Amino acid sequence: MSGGLIVIISFLYLAILFGLAFWGEKRAGKQKSLVNNPYVYSLSLAVYCTAWTYFGSVGRAYSGGIDFLTIYMGPTFMMPLWYIVMRKMIRICKVQRITSLADFISSRYDKSVGLGTLVTIFCVIGILPYIALQIKALDFGIQILQADSMSGFTITTSASILSDNAFYLALVLGFFTIIYGARKADVTERHEGMVTAIAFESILKLFAFLLVGIFVCWFAFDSPKAIFSLAAEQEALSKLFVFDGSSHYLEWLGISLLAAFALVLLPRQFQVSVVENVNEQHIEKAIWLFPAYLLLINLFVIPIAFGGYLLFQNQVVDPDTFVLAIPLLFENNWIAIIAYLGGFAAATSMIIVSTIALSTMISNQIIMPTLLNRPALLARLGNDLTKALLYMRRSSILVILILAYLYYRFAGQDISLINFGLISFVAVAQFAPAVFGGMYWKNASKRGAAAGIWAGFITWMLLLVLPSLPIIKEMSLIQRLPELLAFYEGPQSNILIAFFWSMFFNVTCYIYFSFSVKQSSRERNQAEVFVDINKYARVFEQSIMWKGLAYVKDIESILAKFMGEVKAKKQLKKYAAQQGKTIQSDERADAQLVNHAESLLAGAIGSASARIMMSSVVKEEEISINEVLDILKESQQIMSMNRELQDKSDELKRLSDRLWEVNEQLRLNDHLKDEFISTVTHEMRTPITAIKAFGEILLDNKELEDDERNQFLSVIVKEAVRMSRLINQVLDIERFDSGKQKLECTSCSIQEIINEAIASLEQLINDKKIVLVKDIQQQIPPIYADKDRILQVMINLISNAIKFVEEGSGKIIISAYYIDGDIKVNVIDNGKGINEEQPELLFDKFYQAQNQNTKKPEGSGLGLAITKKIIDHHGGKIWFDKGLKQGVKISFLIPSERKYRRKGAMDASEGVVAKD
Q: What is the CATH number of domain 740-910?
């Protein structure tokens, strides 16, 4: 493939990356952040999967089988702990405005400049060669696409740096990182564009790797099964399917733990998981989404490794190149280009984030403290240092990338991706005791942290770094050190040996010096806040963590120097508004303002440098740990009182809302009462009018025939009965509501009641040609009830069913059975049905009156209300069943006689008399 075409494709991809980053920044400016999304946050964590994952995992699977999974098992098992550990770490960093891993360790241990510098130097030493290997991955990707044959392929370097593609790629990546990673002096502000681009690259490298895996499994071979079947026939590959002894399990455990530490402590991981975190709730999604990503991107590692072995077994081809070599073998250039871009994305995402993290460490932990300790040099830079800060950070980015490129060109050609990746993992693992111990152990001291890190890194250098350098290879003692410190006889990984012994000496020194050296009061203050951050997160700035003398004008001057005069005034004005007070330049600054100013500075220059700057303008007095605890306790009590007041305010609001609801209900009931009275009087007026009219006819026409006279008298009697029934219903409602209704309970059969109700309505059933079905369980236990009232219930329910079914096609089903001490009765019809939204309103005595404006109700609307009162007074319940496509199903439960009397006996034993 043409080299020029590959370069054009590479730069077109970088142009797309620039466009995405620009889009992300633009949306953030419009308050439409893409980064404030748990999926984007989870995808940004996939910067963990570098070119080492993309290319190196296949090489490791080729040589060690499923050993490669240890790099991903550790992070997978670590993720559930993130909800505890990472939430706490994020809260600490937001409160303290921490900008990097070095700043985190420095802040915890008395904001120590020396400790921050130490961590930064070791991070650069450990990560710079790892960045170099990403540049190597970019370069060999280009060279592989250009190669005529993969057999015997080796990476070569251009004779001149100016003609080396890798050099220009490094510069372009530096340009991108500067634009979207070093635009603002305050590094606690989100890099929206950078994170957007990283999330896109995570999607691209996953898609590309899966595409290559599918190509290998179903195009290069018939299926994954075919690959494994052929691999099983190869003795060299069949051994990779099984564990090979007890040492294997120790290595799995050790490398998994090492990878779990790396997920948190690699500078790039700390940057995306902590510094760039917008909302700690995003962790809940990342807990499962990130492991799912790791699973998918490793799904085809072994098939690609075994497939490459089978396809290139008679050729000398580097297994790290299989992802690109297999599509090229089949002359599928499109798959090869996509595979190349996936590796390009894996490498560039790591380079971008790592250089941002390291440049922040270098500028804040090394360059800035050096400047602050040289007032004359600092004075030359003028009063506004914001531009100087940005230039330092941008220069650091370019220097890091140039050094990484030079390391790759002159020293990193012969080092495999996987090996140096693990060496870097062991390096950053040396920060684990200082970080995790500092979060959970108050007695951990600055001396302990420094001693532990020194001990760990010296061991790391002796066991891993020095033996790999050509100049040291002649020194037999250095070469034999890992062998002398091995755990058992037999072959074992130098990585595991170095990890164990470096952590052993690290932890030992950390604990010993923490106990033997007393903490300073300021160090103890920080320890208290870090360990109990969940308790003090909301009161930290309000807590008076400082004693001394300072003036507002001096603080404003310092802030203006590092943030710009306009932004400094804006921040002080914002702080004053939050505190509800005014701040004058000539007045003394209180402790809260000093803490706030130091926090703002920490976001720009790091906590250690911020401490130095604040010390230059304030006269600080020593504050004891007891004072600190009292202050935090007092602040906590204030917060607790505020919470109590807020709770009471919320309770008053709830009561007020409830009172309003009750008032509205009373108003509605009053309105419904008026409508109800209107409805009842209307219902009574109808029979009275009929009685009056027919009575006048009889009175005025004495010569009427007997048949006509009897017909008119029959109507008068019928209407009188109707009015009497209505009056009785109103009186029933009143007696039930007032508690004056007495039930005359006896032992009776529900079956007899149902039969009697049906008999009384038989003529109506026959007139409408309704099909009536009875499904009554045999030998139902008796109930203890007022028989007439239960009969009234049944007649009411069956009458309603008759009323609403269609003539000639109507069907009514009445069922009854015993269930758990109760008798359940159902009345089901196939009529027009009811509105299912609030069927319980049908039992309201005001319901029909309320709905008269839509349709005139048939009857008074009191029948169902009385029915419910009767059932309730018998200790039962009645309801409409929802979900019927047609018709209505109404059911009620009433206690059996045995259950009723047993409950009565229990009530009597408790001093309650059951009512009949």
A: 3.30.565.10
